[in-house]
Amino acid sequence: KARAQWSALVDQFVRGGLDESRTYDVLPSSTAVMKLIGLPDLPIRAGVHALDAVYNHGVKPSQMKQILDELANPQLVMIWNKGANGVPSLNVVTSMSNNDGEPFVIALHPSKASRQGKHHYLATITQKQPRAILDMVREGGALYVGGGEIAGIKDAELQAASRFAKEKRGKEARDLKDVIASRDDLPNLVRNVLYSKDLERFKSGQSGVGQTRERNSCASIAIWSRSWRRRPAPMAARCNSMRCFHELHAVLRGSSRKH
Q1: What contacts 29, CB < 8 A, 6 or more positions away?
Q2: What distance separates the 2 farthest-apart alpha carbons in the chain?
């Protein structure tokens, strides 16, 4: 249903007549990848400015209609820190590109308040130079690497950039993520890089999980954490599968530093 509605909205935009003062539904809730990296489960909305990318950035209407799939299966999610004002933003790198071979990137403003309620705002879709994307990964901006093809970037180049960030830019990467987490009130934003295998585990953990199983899962993590680190991991008073997932990752990060 969401795909059909978005497709119809793109067609209506091309014909003309959309109200520029409104925002429009993109998805009713966050994608699994967005939840995985620690974004709250909120609707995704967009204004006419995002659709203007059809005219301003060379995005074809057929590509604009694929935005929902790209949000669900991104090639890369990263923090972009090279804006004109130096303000970090959240960027979703897609599998699509323009005629010059530059990847299209979706700019998201997470957890924005409006008259329609809190939502993630799809600000724009624009092109980025492959080298600039690799530079941002080297600086520690990557949050999620999907493993698919990105126009103009070889897999070996992306892996090398990720290794450099991990080995040489650890503190800078954490500081960069702390800035956007604090500014946009994202306490669960991941500080390490996650991959498609983590997404599959997360999806498996969410499917068919009831409240009782979630509580048991968190309790198991607490017990395992005590036996491993000799002290209990901090458990949220209200635990859900997202918190459990990040709790497990926090424990794993702590154990990897010791071993």
Answers
A1: 41, 42, 43, 44
A2: 64
Angle at 169 between CA 167 and CA 175, to 5 degrees: 140
Q: Which of 146, 133, 126, 148 is nearest to 63 (CA)?
A: 126
**Strand, helix or coil for residue 73:** coil
At which residue do the structure tokens 């968190």 appear? 218
Give pTM, 2 decimals: 0.80
β-pair partners for 105: 93, 126
Closest alpha carbon to 188 in 257, 113, 242, 108: 242
| Closest listed residue to residue 20, CA positions, set 52, 43, 42 | 52
Question: How far, in Å, CA of 69 to CA of 131, rounded?
Answer: 25
Quick one: residue 140, left, alpha or beta (phi over 0 = left, psi -120 to 50 = alpha)? left
φ/ψ (deg, to 5) at 80: -100, 125
Strand partners, 47: 23
Environment class of 247 (CB within 10 Å of its CB; exposed 0-12, middle 13-18, buried 19+)? buried
Please tell me the distance from the alpha carbon of residue 103 to that of residue 59, in angstroms, as a whole number: 10
Residue 116's pLDDT band, with cuts at 50, 70 and 90, is confident
Chain length of the chain: 259
Average the pLDDT over each of 1-10, 123-132, 157-166, 208-217 and give the range with the smallest value.
208-217
Decide: helix, strand or coil at residue 203. helix
Query: 156 — phi, psi (to 5°)?
Result: -65, -35
Could you tell me how far CA 120 lies from the centroid of its own chain? Answer: 11
Tokens matching residue 200: 């599959």
